[in-house]
Amino acid sequence: MTPHRLRVPKSSAPPLTGHLPFADAPGVPDPIGVTSRWLTRGGRPWFPVSGEFHYSRYPAWEWEEELLKMKAGGVTTIASYVIWIHHEEIEGRIRFDGDRDLRRFAELCARHGLDFVPRIGPWCHAEVRNGGLPDWLLARDCTPRTDDPAYLEPVRTWFTEIAGQLRGLDRAHGGPIVAIQIENELYDQPGHLRTLKRLAQEAGLSAPLWTSTAWGGVQLPGEELLPLYGGYPEAFWTEADGGWPDTCRKHFFFTHERDDEGIGADLRPTTVRGADPLPADRFPWATCELGGGMAVAYHRRPRVEAADVGALGLTKIGCGSVWQGYYMFHGGTNPPGELTSLQESHATGYPNDLPVLTYDFQAPLGEYGQVRPSYHELRLQHLLLADFGHRIAPMESVLPERLPAGQHDRDTLRWAVRTDGTSGFLFVTNHQPHEPLPDHPDTAFTVDFPDAPPLTLPSAPVTVPSGAFFCWPLRLDVAALRLEWATAQPVCTVEAGGRTVLVLAATDGIAPELALDADTVASVATPSGEVTPIAGRILVSGVRPGTDALVEVDTADGSRVGLLVLDAATARTVYRGDAWGAERLVLCGDGVVFDGDEVRLRSAAAEPSFAVLPAPDSVPGVAEAQLRVAADGVFTRYTIEAAPLADTAVPVTLVRPAGPAPEPVTGVQGRASVPADKYVETVAAEYHVDVPEDLLRAPAGVLLRLRWTGDLARAYVGDVLVADQFYSGRVWDIGLDRLPVEEVRARGLRLRVLPLAADAPVHVPGQAGDDWRAAGVRHAEWVVTRSWAVRAG
């Protein structure tokens, strides 16, 4: 057996307080503060979860539902770039209408109890044209992103416009704005960052926190801006033939290094990499760009899987993060420009060619609001933080005695502990993209605490499977019960049946065990397995995870606690929210939102179902459908008996076969460029799709899902480009409700697919042979997601 031992040092000095120039508005009921190690809110440690969602890349009529999806996914704070070129493409005509209505977006956040972080630039990047700076500004005789007065003059006007939109939405007026980000990825202009903050404040913007991205050896203006970090599982901005970047690989190790010199490295000189890090003893470890996915560039088309996102996020908590910020959490679509297209491209001097329209980012919530497996993976972690984040935030990250020898060490188990000196959480990551990590047989852990007896777990060594990542509790108090340790991950708590129920998630391949402090237990009942007293503990083993695996404990003080151990798959269907007059758990593999007196379920299943704990007193109602009720362990399951779905097959007509692939062309930094439009018009295979009338009458929630091969694909209604994608092996979804219905009715949908030359310097992962380079639509189907409003009975 390989020993896995960790010695927790004596508690370090208390964190610094009051040393940073951040202050909340006077008199707010829950003042936000910053210590040197964690954030506070209302005098208690605060662990925010932020997700990036670009309002100007999504239809305004759908904002509210998508914000509720993010909230149901455990996001507590919405971050969004305020992209200048989206609002003032034409000088002097500043638009805040429709999909650009910044104020309405912020007000919706407030309405649903979500904090808001506007990232005001002026330069944002965001894979947008000029990084968000309008063309007319770049045409001026000025030096952007400096204190050049000719640049600061229009910036001052722009900030004033933003401030006008957000007036009255600051904390002093009960608004949702908890932080404002200045600029982005500006590594060598600390004086300019200070100037921008001053201009924003003079314009009327205010927030308890002012932030800046801090990767790449950034130089910040003293302590005026809170540094925020990031880390991605993959990157589109590296070379096509560069393999998996070490700067991405590092994020699947437990370390105390915060910086990532790889993010944005294609847009700054290599000389700034490796600069002196910012003082970690002054600032908490906060993030704003943990990769919820990754964009796809023409020359490099990475694929990010749910496990990649989940493992990276959990690893960062184990490393010491106290603010989980994801980019992107919700995908979108570039708005059509009035003068030019608005994507990052070689034509605008950038090293990467991006698609004209799609900014899906492979995000947990997709370009059309698709609920992806990564959404469920992250929600599992966010439920943990919602209940236990205030405990985790002050805990220090401690690394074991035996560490990996380097970033290419795949044999040393990766683990860490967040601890307060007597209790904590044990984190393990045995997953990374591209290069699977091996099983770790005969694994047990010993954690030596300075102020409490050591813990060794499990009761007998186990095999940590390849691909596993998890968090186990160490001395976790649940009501009056002390859970000494468990080989299952805490999810959340709920009150049900007169008891506090702690839900735990089993890990596939590891038998769950629960070790209870005997002094806190009067009796234990388990539906399966064994209960064994061992040296002051009561060990519950052999529990079969599932919806019926409720271990019932009567505590020594006369209260009741339940420990519900769900299997790994079911745990990833857990939602928690206020529904029908109480806080409840809902199990559903589809999309669920909680909105006042109703729960909305969105599903493409023929007979969608959901399970509830505790069940409402009476059967809830669903318009135009019946609910079938059945027991599901300790849950009550409801199945919607609805009208059958129509045929989802899509007849796709080949109008013109593809010609020979165009010769590859390179652009900025010698990287492959998108083929010229003339090739899409003359060489691409062309297909025609007629959309059924019944779908056109109700296009909401309808996707055309295409499986295709080739280089790039574009969809048109008439001559108007409505969707596009570079081939990476992923399906291509097109939302029917984004298309002009009358034009589609009259003309149908036209698809053009370009083949890829065999010698194109393009990285497309996971492909074998050359058949995938040929242009073709291989399969097409309609995916119809119906929405069900479930109200109290």
TrEMBL record:
One of the GO BP terms on file: carbohydrate metabolic process
Name of the protein in its database record: Glycosyl hydrolase family 35
Segments traversing the membrane: none
Region (Disordered): 1-21
Annotated SUPFAM superfamilies: (Trans)glycosidases
GO molecular function: hydrolase activity, hydrolyzing O-glycosyl compounds
Keyword Hydrolase found: yes
Swiss-Prot/TrEMBL keywords: Hydrolase
Family per similarity comment: Belongs to the glycosyl hydrolase 35 family.
Residue ranges occupied by any Glycoside hydrolase 35 catalytic domain in the UniProt entry: 40-187
Pfam families: Glyco_hydro_35
Source species: Streptomyces swartbergensis
